[in-house]
Amino acid sequence: MFDYIDNAAKLADLLVRLDKAEWVTLDTEFIREKTYYPRLCLIQIASADTLACIDPLQIDDLQPFLDWLAQPQRLKVLHAAWQDLEIFHHLGGGKLPAPVFDTQIAAAVLGLGDQLGYARLVEQLLGITLDKSQSRTDWARRPLSSKQLEYAIDDVRHLRDVYLALRQQLEKLGRLRWLDKPFQKLVDSATYAVDPRMVWERVKNVQILKPRQLAILRELAAWREERALRKDIPRRWILSDEILIDLARMKLDTPDSMQQIRGLTAEQVERYAPEWLQCIARAKALPDSAWPNLPRRRKLDDNMSVVADLLTALLNQVANENGISAQMIATRQQIEKMLEEGRTALSDDWRGALVNDLFGQVLSGKTSIRISKQKVVIE
Fold first, then answer.
1. What is 302-378's CATH topology?
2. 24 close to 3: Cβ distance less than 8 angstroms
3. Do 302-378 and 3-191 fall under one CATH topology?
4. Which among 95, 205, 215, 282 has most CB atoms closer than 10 A?
5. What is the pTM (predicted TM-score) of this model?
6. pLDDT tens readout for residues 20-73
7. Which residues of 242-256 are buried (b: 16+ CB within 10 A; e: fewer)?
8. Does domain 3-191 have CATH number 3.40.50.170?
9. Alpha carbon distance 279, 273 (integer Å)
């Protein structure tokens, strides 16, 4: 059984009942096909003895709940928390639920799998197969059926046992502190802040543009992002990535010249061309030194490539010894970047704690490596 919370009085009563909980499990259902920001449609929450679905479409003021979530004395447990926290960041004006525990990250640290889905994790840890029949539900429609609500509440019902099982394993292996920095990043407002001046880097096919064209793209992408934010609509509804690339790549100086771009309508050109031309003019007025550049990775020379091979092999061995996916610790590309930058340490979090000393000793020549019984031995 669970409670369905659809008015302020029920919400206030729920928060009183949950107030003494040391931790709660939390999940959301949302849609974002027609908006820039996700539209929150349902909140599921549970403590050891309480289960509830909160209907944000029926409750006028969610602020008491948002304030309660932000209270630091209570741990908030989520799975693949980023999107849920993005919603609360937007609704709370930058205030986030904290502290948090992400069971997807915890599962990866325990070697259970990278980016493991919730249903798979529940089956792996608890032996329970979840019903997936309601995964395509339109969560904005009302009323929600009992089957839809049961499907939703399962996301926090079983998360309680998943959390307890993961925490027990983490404590047994001494890995609980490994999660401090990843979880701190999840509750850092900067993680969810949108900088319109930086979104150009994520435009599809950006790599085909030259630096001067990138300057134009930066202006146009910022214009699109600001308009999408202001209107709360998907950025693709304003202009597609393909059109942005064409506007940046082609030599355009009049509205008529824009008519040749495939996918642009005459109405769009008439409405927006003056603003696009202003963006293009601003970019063209910049000196070469102000043009953006995509990071270009240098190819390692043969000697350093061998070093990267060696470090990758050592990393694989450390991963195997700890029962963790090597990709969870670092990729070959990350190792190459470390070498390119002249560093001997991989990172300052739990990943680095596993390999930094080893990498440092090998790169400084303070240790030797040999093969014994088909295994790398470090001396």
1. DNA polymerase; domain 1 (1.10.150)
2. no
3. no
4. 215
5. 0.89
6. 999 999 999 999 999 999 999 999 999 999 999 999 999 999 999 999 999 999
7. ebbbbbbbeebeeee
8. no
9. 10
Query: 196-290: CATH homologous superfamily?
Result: HRDC domain (1.10.150.80)
Give the type of residue at 47: S
